[in-house]
Amino acid sequence: MPATQENDIGIIVYAPALVGADSRPLAVVRGMERAFPGLRLEWTISREGTLVRLPQRESWLSQGRPTGRGFRLICNGDESYRVTVSGWESPAGTSPGGQAQFEVHAALPFDATGIAAAANVLEAVAEGARAFWGRVDPDGIAVTVSEQFRHPGEKPHVPPKGLPSLKLPWELPTPEIPHYLGWLNYWSAAAARAVGFPDSARDSELLSRSRRTATGGWVVRLTDAPLDLDNPTHLDALKRAYERFPEIGGRAAP
After folding, report:
1. Stated pTM of the model
2. Residue 2 pLDDT greater than 80, yes or no
3. Residue 180 in contact with residue 145, Cβ under 8 Å?
């Protein structure tokens, strides 16, 4: 089995479901290669855990997954410095608005190169997938996020670190509403409208760390360094962003 890096930067984007001979898996892979210096994604990992080169990558990507639409894990073939991406379909029953989605997961090394490339990779993956929204977080943040989701019967629900309770993804009315906030956030033009961003009177600080994408979406950075919830300044920035955008996680009053 290839070695596992101690730390990764995790990227997730949520996009409309794949249809027919969809070109988005290849667009995601090519976008990652453009965004990460020197990256070539030409390998996969077998069931036995060994690296397998993909000489016919485009054909391989078009085959989808054995269990349905999407694409199997593809990587750079470096066991000590691994970059990966894969995608699959989230069924309608567990997705916002009862609409199946194309979900893409990527991982970068948590080092200076990965951190510097993270915003560009997020934008490339999200725009290649034509995503509604996406996020980047260091390893470990996902545990806290999972504890923010309020499950049936949890009364009272008290998330960690004073963060707000969030509705489960399938309880959200539309796929444009982000489930939660990350260190770096991709919001499509539709998602930005859904959360009310930007507002020039209230978002000057966020706008100083944000940029517009070619399709009219936004990449919004909450903190300069990767989010660390043990850092009081970072935690405060996250709390302020949740207060500013109550639509995220379905917390806005109906």
Report:
1. 0.95
2. no
3. yes
